[in-house]
Design the sequence.
């Protein structure tokens, strides 16, 4: 059976490093595995997951995907299981960190066939945060493939699973209208999902509208890259402020909330800006203006804050299917990356 282009041994840190053909071939593999089953091709292989931040869907889907393919999983929580890690190259380690990421990554590579990391932003300046130091350090020092389980900049496995969900709904996604709509959330949420979903939409030739209030643009370099990707895939990208304008005629409305990069590290100022948009949520009225759009969200979702119950629980809501497909895309990805 033709498995498509090989991606064996690659890191999965952003969809940006994969071609549309590679993305589609993993989706096709996941769809086949959903129908035909999967056996135990990862017997004798092991996955080390390292969490610097909480997770439900990602933790459960990674662990269950790997173990149901026959492999062994270890789940390490930073701050509980790991020694405090030093990330700075050449640091004189006379402060709180007991171990350097260089050593932790190399040692974990001795035990595990793949390492997966979740590490979100702290409270630093965006120019520093966007360097994604934790995942980049593990990538640099590990000798096995690295999976990004959500970092400062990206959440590729979420986006890959979302593409699977959309393909199951629509078939070919080229030319479909998707809106990434900023909604209010009481906390400044990461930019990883918005970046990942936008990259996926542009790679697969969708017509993407990114809709957010003033002060909430996506990361500038990501925007630049999205423009190039959309141009080369035959898709398009536009930016608008008003939600009702954005959702007009949309096939998909993907709700997400994210923090201001300009005010990153200045939480009081950021909160003041965000609180001016408390009423910005997906309502049934807004969804009426769409092309019977599917509603998507990566979850966890704040009901009746980000979207009304009536939208979240409507027949066109895909949020549970999205979460479910995290498992199926993960099985396909582990098989493809490990060449199993
Ligand atoms: N969507 C997602 O990544 O969910 P978790 O944060 O619960 O893993």
Sequence:
């Amino acid at each position: 059976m033709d498995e498509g282009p090989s991606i064996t041994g690659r890191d999965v840190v952003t969809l940006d490093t994969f071609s549309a053909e590679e993305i589609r071939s993993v989706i096709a593999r996941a769809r086949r595995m959903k129908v035909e089953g999967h056996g135990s091709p990862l017997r004798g292989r092991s996955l080390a997951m390292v969490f610097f931040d909480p997770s439900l869907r990602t933790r459960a889907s990674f662990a269950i995907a790997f173990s149901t393919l026959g492999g062994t999983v270890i789940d390490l929580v930073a701050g509980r299981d790991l020694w405090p890690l030093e990330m700075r190259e050449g640091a004189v380690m006379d402060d709180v960190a007991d171990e350097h990421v260089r050593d932790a990554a190399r040692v974990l590579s001795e035990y595990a066939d793949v390492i997966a990391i979740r590490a979100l932003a702290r409270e630093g300046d965006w120019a520093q945060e966007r360097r994604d130091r934790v995942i980049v350090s593990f990538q640099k020092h590990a000798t096995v493939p690295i999976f990004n389980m959500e970092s400062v900049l990206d959440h590729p496995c979420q986006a890959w699973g979302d593409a699977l969900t959309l393909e199951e709904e629509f078939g070919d996604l080229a030319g479909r209208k998707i809106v990434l709509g900023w909604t209010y959330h009481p906390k400044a949420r990461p930019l990883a999902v918005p970046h990942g979903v936008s990259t996926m939409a542009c790679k697969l030739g969708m017509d993407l509208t990114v809709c957010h209030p003033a002060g909430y643009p996506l990361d500038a370099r990501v925007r630049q890259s999205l423009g190039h990707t959309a141009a080369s895939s035959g898709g398009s990208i536009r930016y608008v402020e008003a939600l009702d304008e954005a959702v007009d005629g949309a096939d998909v409305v993907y709700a997400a909330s994210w923090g201001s990069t300009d005010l990153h590290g200045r939480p009081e100022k950021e909160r003041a800006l965000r609180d001016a948009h408390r009423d910005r949520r997906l309502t049934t009225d807004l969804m009426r203006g769409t092309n019977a759009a599917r509603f998507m969200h990566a979850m966890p979702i704040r009901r009746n804050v980000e979207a009304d119950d009536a939208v979240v629980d409507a027949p066109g809501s895909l949020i549970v299917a999205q979460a479910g497909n995290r498992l199926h895309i993960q099985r396909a990805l582990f098989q493809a990356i490990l060449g199993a």
Remarks:
- The chain has 13 helices and eleven strands.
- The two ends are 14 Å apart (CA to CA).
- The chain has a mean pLDDT of 97.
